[in-house]
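thought: fold this chain, then report.
action: predict
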Amino acid sequence: MSRRSIQVKAILSLGIVVGLGAVSTLAAWSGTATATSNITAAQISLGVGAAASSATTPSYTVPVSSVRWYPGVSAAAVVVVKNTSTVPMPFSIKGTITESGGAELGKAMNVVVKTGATLSGTAPNVTCAGGTTLVTKAAGAAFGAEVTRPTLVADASESLCVQYSLPAAAANNLQGTTTKLDLIFTATVGS
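observation:
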């Protein structure tokens, strides 16, 4: 036999041995376990209203629209901000003005937001007496920077006194004009 034929027979024999080994089967047993987490994200929400019991919706019209505005008039009302979510959260206050027409009635008004104040006086001169001033908007100016308030726990509220006034020096061209003054309360949690 030639050397070449011996090599071929050796390779074929090796193939038979490998082929027989591949045909054998192995039995494997297994078991499984599962760890499940059901997660519900908190919903962050604020309510506003005249009292804590009614501060359940995200919008409230401050009852000063019936005031007949002229120079020197002031009106004030209580606005309650309530944490209507299930987690503690701080909130902030920011004011905006939306003018109607060419005159700037909103810019001409003074606005003050206080905590711990009480309503004082009678129409057309109702003010927020005492307390701590949080937001001030002077006549002729826009609202200042956003003001951050402390954390409200779930279902807690903060009463704010909001005072609007038209200065005695208000321009004559403001007669018959309208404006919209918004106080925007924003709650933020997380980073």
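thought: worth noting. The first strand starts at residue 46 and ends at 49.
final: tokens above.
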